[in-house]
Amino acid sequence: MYSVPLFLYTGPEFGERNDAIADMKNSAEKKFGSLDYHLLYTADVPLSDVLSILQNGNLFVPARFVVLRGAEAIKKKEDIELLSKWCDELKSIQADDVWLFLVSDETSVDKKLESLVPKEHRKIFWEMFEDRKEQWLESFFRKNGYRTDPDVAELILSLVENNTEALRNECSRFFVCFEKNHLITTDDVESILTHNREESAFTLFDAMAAADHEPQTRLSESLSILQKLRNSKDSNYVSLIAGLTWCFRKLKVWHLLAKENGLSDFNLKINGFQAKKMQQKYRAAARIWNSEQTESAISLLSQTDMMIRSSGSAMESISLQTLVYCLCMKKGSSLSEYEIS
Q: What is the reported pTM?
């Protein structure tokens, strides 16, 4: 039975989600030889243009594969109807040379949008339980030709944000520093991930969430980290905002657990807070941003993302500095017109 090649992949486990899409892309390339591939964002491209790419594509490439991020923003009636019409067209001709992946870091999207996606094509990529993360890490090192001491996985999880994409990026640094078959020890982890740790969205959040410091100190340290990130050859505001958004969504989960008296060891573990260092970080962050302020921070991050996309690189630097200022000094509130003037 024909199933429309429309997919909905949601959830906070970026690594597994991206791997699943990459597997589908590789399968499509094997079948057709080459693809007209596009990675797009709802904030940048109207849905009508996305569907136009899928319907027309490149005349010299036999298949089209589109990944559209930010699917939670697809809510307009006309967009839903447009996508529904496209699905009906595919059904009528039973096309097998197009793929559209709707992707969101959220766990849900508009119900009318979701209903267009075949059930077998919907998947929520939940964050792994802690024991699975340790297994994933041990397997990752083993597949790459390295051995690990018993406490290595637990220590890494206390130092690195616990989605597999961040873990893969950080742990790949060991492969540059050590020969294959090296036994990675906790001293190696301290050396590579602590003393030589590179700045990232997560270290920026750590600086902003240092509740023992005065707001002005947190702002100064955060702006310093932001500048280092901006000067990096790998500088990318999209990943920076995505990383910070992940942290504040994690803080939102912490507040929900606290509200429901759910900060027990078991509840913390199943919600990805098993590592003591992570518990300390989010306990401190909760002292800075309450539940409402956390929601405001998430909204501010989204607004900043859209502002930079619409204004271009000319406003990127000042927009990110303003973002850090608002998160540190105004607890997620936007600048007022008086402050801007």
A: 0.63
Note the pLDDT of residue 336: 64
Q: Which residues of the chain have pLDDT under 50?
A: 337-338, 340-341
Closest CA to 300 of 331, 340, 337, 255: 331
CA–CA dist 186, 149 (Å, integer): 7
Q: Give the contacts of 180 (CB within 8 A, at least 6 positions apart).
A: 144, 145, 146
- Core vs surface per residue 158-172: b (16+ CB within 10 A) or e: bbbbbbbbbbbebbe
* Dihedral of the alpha carbons of 66, 69, 75, 77, in degrees to the nearest 10: -20
Report pLDDT for 196: 61
Tokens 């390295």 identify what position?
146
The per-residue pLDDT for 339 is 53
| Residue where the block lists tokens 């929900």 | 256
What stretches of 76-150 adopt beta strand conformation (E)?
98-104, 122-124, 147-148
For residue 64, the SS3 value is strand
Q: What does DSSP assign to residue 67?
A: E
CA separation (Å) from 258 to 122, 250, 282? Answer: 30, 13, 11
Residues in a beta bridge with 8: 102, 122
Q: Helices in 13-110 by DSSP H: which ranges?
A: 14-32, 47-55, 77-93
Residue pLDDT, tens place only, 85-131: 999 999 999 989 999 999 998 888 999 999 999 999 999 998 777 67
In 10 A of CB 137, how many CB atoms? 21
DSSP string covering 200-245: -HHHHHHHHT-TTS-HHHHHHHHHHHHHHHHHSTT--HHHHHHHHH
